[in-house]
Amino acid sequence: MQLKKYTDYGLRVLMYLACQPEQAMTSVRIICEVFDLSANHVNKVVHHLAKLELIDTKRGKNGGFVLAKPLSSIRLDYVIRQLEGDEDWIDCLSPICIALPACKLNGIVEQGKALFYEHLSQFTVADLVSDNKQQLQTIFIQNA
Fold this sequence. Notes:
The chain is mainly α. It has a single domain (5-86, 125-143), classed as Winged helix-like DNA-binding domain superfamily/Winged helix DNA-binding domain (Arc Repressor Mutant, subunit A, Orthogonal Bundle). 53% of the residues lie in helices and 6% in strands. The chain has helices at residues 5-18, 28-35, 39-51, 76-84, 105-120, 125-129, 133-143, and strands at 55-58, 64-67. A two-stranded antiparallel ribbon has the order 1-2. Helix 1 (5-18) crosses helix 3 (39-51) and helix 2 crosses helix 3 (39-51). The longest helix is centred in the last third of the chain and has 16 residues, at 105-120. The two termini are 31 Å apart. It comes from Rheinheimera salexigens. InterPro entries: Tscrpt_reg_Rrf2, WH-like_DNA-bd_sf, WH_DNA-bd_sf. GO terms for molecular function: DNA binding; DNA-binding transcription factor activity. Keywords: DNA-binding.
């Protein structure tokens, strides 16, 4: 399994914001420069994170976005589920699989998916930057 680039970008945005001084606004342009990403993609991700109320956005000359919640309250399982979409990992119905009546694959994969999200539920965005914040800040500054 591989996470979508969309989810990857969302996690990068949150990590970047986690390393900024509290209430310090950043912009799509800065995120794009630091991570060498497309502004079109980052705009969509930022909009989605704002809809999820994970970031606050402000338009205008001094606009940008900032974390809306404490880092320790933003769980990774929630972020990844929301950005990935909680779709089935195995689609037995499109097209309909002839093995469906006897197949155990979907059930096994669903159990694995549940374990995956259960594991992620133990971590927050704070855990992504807790002991490497200075190193990340240096990396972000060097790439801006």
